[in-house]
Write a structure and sequence with these properties.
13 helices; 2 domains; mainly alpha; 0% strand; Helix Hairpins; disordered C terminus
């Protein structure tokens, strides 16, 4: 009797695990030919896009309430499904169900749900923060598109080069900002307008010049300032071009690698069914 009960319990647990495994395959990025998973990804992408439509309007309309209710309901279901399948996602790690809510993606998912409080509880006063939190919903797109995840792997792989370039850029911005703040007059002698009123103005100018944007709202008037400005523009071209080249080459390599892995998986699937 006890043996029969134990067997039934084991079968029940195995059935639940199989069901959760199926759910995990559906909510993860759909592979080619996996119609249900692809349909789920499309549904969630549409929900993400629709959910941020209210942010494009200054006024609130009644339709926005229904949009929020429907999309947040989908986000809550998605969050719970990911939580109950955390052991597959965090395979090999201890206490996956306790660890999952503290992972980066789970926190983003949770923060994207929180704005619904402003609809359910009218006494919730920080509406502006609630609106800003909705912007985080765009990051949920990363769950459902592999191209962005490929880019993330590329950045992770080339992080040493990118961090080196970032350090050089930040150092140069700080250096040129110091030079400009001390070399330039704080009042333009020609127009009488304030130029570099504080060090933050100098940092702002150094950043937009290094990135070759140059809005023109702050311009140097001394020869030293103009010379530094020319150097910053030339240096900026090199600083921007270097990481762009590294990311492009690495991205193409990663795409080839991903394609090979997908082809390998596709070739292995028939043999497994056999």
């Amino acid at each position: 009797m006890f043996l029969l009960c134990g067997l039934k319990k084991m079968l029940s647990l195995q059935k639940r695990k199989t069901m959760r495994k199926t759910i995990y395959r559906i909510i993860e990025q759909g592979k080619e030919g996996d119609t249900i998973s692809i349909a789920y990804d499309i549904l969630m992408l549409v929900a993400i896009v629709v959910s941020i439509i209210p942010l494009m309007f200054a006024k609130s309309y009644p339709a926005f309430h229904y949009i929020e209710m429907v999309t947040v309901s989908l986000f809550i279901i998605d969050y719970l499904l990911r939580w109950i399948t955390a052991d597959f996602r965090l395979d090999g790690k201890k206490l996956p169900f306790l660890r999952y809510p503290f992972t980066a993606w789970a926190i983003i998912d949770l923060l994207s749900i929180l704005p619904v409080i402003s609809f359910l509880w009218k006494g919730f006063k920080i509406l502006r923060i609630a609106r800003l939190l909705r912007v985080l919903r765009l990051f949920k797109v990363f769950h459902y598109t592999d191209k962005i995840q490929v880019l993330g792997r590329v950045i992770q792989r080339e992080k040493q080069v990118l961090l080196t370039v970032l350090f050089i850029a930040v150092f140069y911005v700080f250096l040129t900002a110091l030079i400009m703040f001390n070399a330039e007059p704080h009042i333009n002698p020609v127009t009488g307008n304030e130029t570099f009123g504080d060090f933050f103005d100098a940092l702002y100018w150094a950043t937009v010049t290094l990135t070759t944007v140059g809005y023109g709202d702050l311009t140097p008037v001394t020869d030293i300032g103009r010379f530094v400005s020319m150097l910053s523009s030339l240096f900026g071209v090199a600083v921007i071009a270097l990481p762009s080249g590294v990311i492009t080459v690495s991205y193409l390599e990663e795409l080839k690698h991903t394609k090979k892995e997908n082809n390998k998986d596709s070739n292995n699937e028939p043999s497994q069914h056999d």
